[in-house]
């Protein structure tokens, strides 16, 4: 399909896509502390993002063009809503207590995902099972410690407890990344699929917790966490399943998969920008 003619033939869809991109990029810039200057009592970034979101809402309420089907117009309205809800709830937190509760709420999913990893070795080819077991051996201890620290932070959201939580989530994140690389080396296609899926489930939960921890961490703390992350997201990204990650996030928060998919993508952009 010719992209130029597509833009010309579907201007409303094109404009909606551009506005969604503006809102998404604006959210990432705001998370990184990039304001592009002040505008009234806010920032230029927040002003542009707000205007883009408002225009999306107006675009979605416009009468349907005779050249665009009702289904397309409805989809534009849904994407507008998704863009407006983008910061909720995956990468934002109102307070330390709220975020701590959200982290604790993720721990059952983490425990379940780790339990699945423990049982996955039985599904692999005999030659692959020991390699996988060795690569994921640290998941149990690290996940239990992270869950305990999340509960401790909920009980006492102090700087000292937060520092411990920051360090531990990075430890588990690095273990997951290392395991993902090892799983990617498995030659047997069926074994590799089972191994990557199991590690991916743990990684998605850890990523969600990492996002929540970052939302209540200072820029200096985030920079320190990124420095401690030697295996970067870009290295393991080829082995990740974005659709599966979105399904896990959507199921946890009870939200549309489309919204979760954008939230996951936004978080990944934010992570790369932060140095993870």
Describe the structure.
The protein has 276 residues and is mainly α. The protein folds into two domains: 3-84; 96-274. 75% of the residues lie in helices and 1% in strands. The protein has a two-stranded antiparallel sheet with strand order 1-2. A hairpin with a 2-residue loop joins β1 and β2 (42-43). The longest helix is centred in the last third of the chain and has 27 residues, at 189-215. Residues 60-70, 72-77 and 79-88 have low confidence and may be disordered.
Write the layout of secondary structure elements.
Elements: H1 3-9, H2 11-31, E1 38-39, E2 42-43, H3 44-61, H4 70-84, H5 96-120, H6 129-135, H7 139-155, H8 159-184, H9 189-215, H10 219-227, H11 233-236, H12 242-253, H13 257-274
Antiparallel strand pairs: 1-2
Notable traits:
276 residues; mainly alpha; two-stranded antiparallel ribbon; 75% helix; 2 strands
Number of domains: 2
Q: Structural class, from helix and strand content? A: mainly alpha
Biggest beta-sheet profile: 2 strands, antiparallel
Rg, Cα atoms, Å: 21 Å
Distance between the termini: 36 Å
Gross morphology is globular
Query: Helix proportion of residues, in percent?
Result: over 70%
Strand order of the largest sheet: 1-2
Low-confidence stretches: 60-70, 72-77, 79-88
Q: Figure out the total of helices.
A: 13
Strand fraction band?
under 5%
Number of DSSP strands?
Answer: 2
Instruction: Note the run of SSEs as H and E.
Output: HHEEHHHHHHHHHHH
Mean pLDDT: 78
